[in-house]
Design goal:
Helix content is 0%, strand content 69%. The chain is mostly beta strands and 156 residues long. It has a 10-stranded antiparallel β-sheet, with no helix packed on it.
């Protein structure tokens, strides 16, 4: 993403590709999840910020997602039907609370690998992590965030 001149604080319209994969223990089942949504991006104080909305149910109330990507790692915040603040840092285990209309879960997130690539008009962040729920191992997961500047041929 271009960071020249006064563009540090300008929001750019982007397409956000979010894909995740959960390898469940024991049964070898994979649960792929993928969405592509419009969003906004800006760069400030050495970090990239991405905001997008997603519909998680039929209530017509979007959940707003905020992603902060920096050389140190990635943070994901969700506000709406689901509320959480997840932190992914290499070699550290962080605790997050995942609040839904059905209750709150305690999650442990231990990032085992972070890969960040930045090129003109594109950010690519991949995170491999071990997921725990209520202090018990659940799955090895992979989360990929691809942010692309919108071009004219992306008609949404």
């Amino acid at each position: 993403m271009n960071r020249k001149g006064n563009e540090h604080n300008m929001e750019k319209q982007v397409l956000v590709h979010v894909s995740g994969l959960h390898m469940m223990e024991g049964d070898g089942q994979e649960e792929p999840v993928e969405i592509v949504v419009p969003g906004e991006h800006y760069f400030r104080n050495g970090s990239h910020y991405v905001r997008y909305e997603e519909m998680l149910d039929d209530s017509n109330k979007p959940t707003v997602n905020y992603i902060k990507i920096s050389p140190k790692g990635m943070e994901v915040r969700k506000k709406g039907l689901v509320n959480t603040h997840m932190v992914f840092e290499q070699g550290k285990k962080n605790v997050a609370f995942y609040t839904t209309p059905f209750g709150t879960l305690q999650m442990g997130i231990a990032a085992t690998n972070l890969e960040f690539k930045e090129k003109e008009g594109c950010l690519d962040m991949k995170v491999d992590y071990a997921l725990e729920m209520n202090e018990g191992y659940v799955a090895d997961c992979c989360l990929s965030i691809l942010v692309e500047e919108k071009n004219d041929h992306f008609a949404l």
